[in-house]
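Researcher: I've got a protein sequence and the SMILES for magnesium ion. Could you write out the 3D structure of the bound complex as structure tokens? I'd like something to compare against our soaking experiments later this week.
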Amino acid sequence: MNSTDLKIISKPENKSSKDKVSNSSINAKEKVLVTNVNGFDKLFKSGGIPKGNSVLVAGGPGTGKSILCRQICFNLVSKGKKCMYVSFEESKERIIKSMEDFGWNIRKYVDNGDLLIQKINPLDILRMKFGSIGGSGSATELSYKIKPLVIPKDFNPDLIAVDSLSAIIAASITKDKNYRVYLQQLFSFFEETQATSLLITETDPIPKRYSETGIEEFLADGIIVLYNLQKKDIRENAIEILKMRYGQHQKKIVLMEITDKGIKVFPDKRVTLE
Ligand SMILES: Nc1ncnc2c1ncn2[C@@H]1O[C@H](COP(=O)(O)OP(=O)(O)O)[C@@H](O)[C@H]1O
Ligand SMILES: [Mg+2]
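Model: Sure. Here is the predicted complex with magnesium ion in place.
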């Protein structure tokens, strides 16, 4: 790694929303995003995800990553908050339908603008990454260009979910330095928005690493891992908070259920990996 790399991947120092929060006298509840996903908030000592964190939601296929992010979005907009769901794979209509299948009446929040669902072609991001939409593709220009793409003016979401970071990589030919620059820009951007962000990454069923390149793990404030475990003749879903900056959390893998009403976490039911 040369000195340029170090500069690129170091975290910006000036504008952490968490610092601002910790300097004020507001109570712990206001520093966290309460998801109201049954049992999930109990995994955190302060009762939710520290506000402003960028969190990887990592796991193998079918482990509930998309459902968890959609459920959090629904719960938040039901409480008057604003969310943005960026999808690289599924259409807006499919996402709405999948949420309605859980009994979540989401359409009115899409219609009134509280939930913004954006389907983006990963190739559009890659075109920016390589700077082919005008300009040289330097880091500064990238950050300038990412903004209008990722978030509309005057929309200040409490939460941004990206489904998934892996899709960007799948569309990428090489995991080269451009990707690293792009990721760094993306994480800096999320931090600037002050939104809490959930970034889905596809991993092996029992992951040894939690993102494609390892850079994501390093940049993220938190990592939530979802599991789909074979236990004799049944499969069990489980969840673990592997890492979470700015907040204490349980350090064990616990049972999770995906039902036709959504996800339920059992913070006291420990699950072992084997
Ligand atoms: N109505 C439902 N009832 C119970 N389980 C469901 C239901 N809908 C989906 N699932 C489970 O959720 C899984 C898909 O979750 P999803 O969030 O799409 O996974 P991914 O981690 O790939 O994003 C399915 O494999 C299935 O086991
Ligand atoms: Mg998914």
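Model: The chain is about 35% helix and 25% strand. Confidence is low (pLDDT under 50) at residues 1-25, 130-135.
Researcher: Great, I'll pass this along to the crystallography team.
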